[in-house]
Amino acid sequence: MPDLKVLIGGRNYNISCSSGEENAAIESANLLDQEAELIQDQLGRLPEDKMLLLSGLLLGDKIRALKHERSALEETLRVTQSKFNELSSRVDGETKSVATDSTEAYANEITKDEGNQVALLQSISDLLDGIILEFEKPNSDKNKQVNSTEVNKNTQESFL
C-alpha cells in the first residue's frame, strides 16, 4: 500500500492508499487543499480540525449542487428524448402516409399508362399485320404470275 505526502491548507499529511489509486488520492487532496486555502483566505489561520471540517463541508456542498444539477439535466434529457420520440413517430407516420400516397399515385399512373400501353400495343399490332399482309401480297402475286405463266406456256404450247 503506497504512502503519499500531501499538502492541505499549508500543512503536510501522510496518507496511504491502495495500489493504483495514487493519482486519485492526490487529485482529491488537491481539491481539499483548494477549499482549505479559500477558507484561510477568508477567515485567516484556523485550527487543523476546523479547517478540515469546513473544507469537507464546502466540498460536500459542491457535490450536493452537482448531484442536483445532474438530476435536472437527466430530467431535461428525459423530456427531450420523449419529445424526440414523439416527433420521430409523427415523422414516421407522415412518411408512411406520403409513401402510401406516392404508391397510390404511382399505381394510378400505371393504370392510366396501361390504357395508353394497350392502345400503343394495338397500333403496333395493326402495323405488323399490315406489314405481314404486304409481304404476303407479293408472294400471292408471284403465285398468280407463276400460275398465269404456266397457263401461258400451256396456251402457247397448244398454239404451236
- Main sheet: strand order: 1-2
Write down the CATH class of the domain at 1-46.
Answer: Alpha Beta
Strand fraction: 5-15%
Element pattern in H and E: EEHH
Q: What integer is the average pLDDT?
A: 79
Number of helices: 2
Given the helix and strand composition, which structural class is it? mainly alpha
CATH architecture of the domain at 1-46: 2-Layer Sandwich
CATH fold title of the domain at 1-46: Double Stranded RNA Binding Domain
Low-confidence stretches: 149-160
What is the number of strand segments? 2
The largest sheet is: 2 strands, antiparallel
Helix fraction?
Answer: over 70%
User: End-to-end distance, in Å?
Assistant: 142 Å
Features:
mainly alpha, 8% strand, disordered C terminus, Double Stranded RNA Binding Domain, 2 helices, 160 residues
Describe this structure in words.
The protein has helices at residues 22-43, 48-159, and strands at 3-8, 11-16. By secondary structure, it is mostly helical. The chain has a domain at 1-46: 2-Layer Sandwich (Double Stranded RNA Binding Domain). The relative contact order is 0.05.
